[in-house]
Amino acid sequence: MKKITYYPGCTLHSTAYEYGDSTEAVLKYLGIEWQEIPDWNCCGAASAKSLNHKLSILLPARNIKNASTLNNDIYVPCAGCYNNMMKAKRALENAEERQNIEKSLGKFESIPEVYPLMRLFTDKAILEKLSQSKLKTDVKVASYYGCAFVRPEEVLQNENPEIPQSIDNILNAVGLETVEWPLKSFCCGGDLSLADSSVVSVLVEKIINYAKEAGANAIVTACPLCQANLEMRQKEPFPIFYFTEILGIAMGIDNEKWWKKHLVDPRDLVSKIKGGK
Amino acid sequence: MKIILDKEKLNSSYVQAIKEMSMQKVMSCYQCGKCTAGCPIADFMDVVPNEMMRLVMLGEIEKLISSKAIWLCTSCFQCGTRCPKGIEVHRVFEALRSIALREGKNYTNIEKLSEEQLEAIPQQGIIAGFRKFESLE
Q: What is the 3-state secondary structure (H, E, C) of chain A?
């Protein structure tokens, strides 16, 4: 049985509860054992690096150190957390920077691999397992990656920053068609949702219009902040899913609780994805 | 816009701080404008990314610190990914924000967040927003 180390970050237990719960349900179904990083802390989001570069490396580096005791690869569902943790990992790969980090945090015995959660499901064996649960539907979706999973270059692993593919491959495996569209890694506005929501509304409108024009009935994402912005700042109801929720539907283990957490009720579309009219 | 070049301004402590904090070779920018072309927020900025790079080269840092643009940057990293000279332009924005924050130009006021925002916006967004929440008022 595959074992992974899991870093939920602050979001997956709270505002993105449906992402966290669907992830755990899918892992359970696939027989993947997961353990959370012991005593994990905040990744620093975007505020740590505005205040102090050293802090922005040490916060995620501490998580990596705690995870190293478990001896498994770390999988990170949130884009912001992944981005920060990857930057800390790159720093640890540099001998001089590693020494500086170890001055603050003590010696690292080993440095585990850090992957975005999507990467787990694009593993060949798991992709094959996924393709055993096929959806029969003519619903099409647009996969949306946002910024932090694919930029800057130092965080990239096996992905094209302009035309990322992992979510598409996962959804196609369970029989859901994804459309080709140009805004897969366009910015949703991120934390500007607090400071100047009118800017975010313009960006979100652009993203949703492009997705519709490409023939999509919904957007599927992997980032909690993208999901919130896309739902909160849109004009006409257009459902926004997490990719793990779609996997849950395909496996027949979806939960009514997930749909209640959405700001845009996706239940009509969920029944269509399940094969209804 | 009239800019008077002077030696002191070109080598001011501000310019040094930006080079050091951003860890970027700002002087190698040749103004192709790809950063601005890719920037999703450029339409809303008073100083667009390639202008910002130019002003850093000319030592006009105070104009940048008081600009709206440095707070509108969402750190989406598009500018840096597309720069043909390999400059991570977003890190220059980050350095400018750090300088502004250290000069007390911004602070967090959690009480001003609305109920709707607290309910709906994920924690990572709220924490990230702390650095620029009040700056646009």
A: CCEEEECCCCCCCCCCHHHHHHHHHHHHHHCCEEEECCCCCCCCCCHHHHHCHHHHHHHHHHHHHHHHCCCCCEEECCHHHHHHHHHHHHHHCCHHHHHHHHHHHCCCCCCCCEEEHHHHHCCHHHHHHHCCCCCCCCCEEEEECCCCCCCCHHHCCCCCCCCCCHHHHHHHHCCCEECCCCCCCCCCCCCHHHHCHHHHHHHHHHHHHHHHHCCCCEEEECCHHHHHHHHHCCCCCCCEEEHHHHHHHHHCCCCHHHHHCCCCCCHHHHHHHCCCC
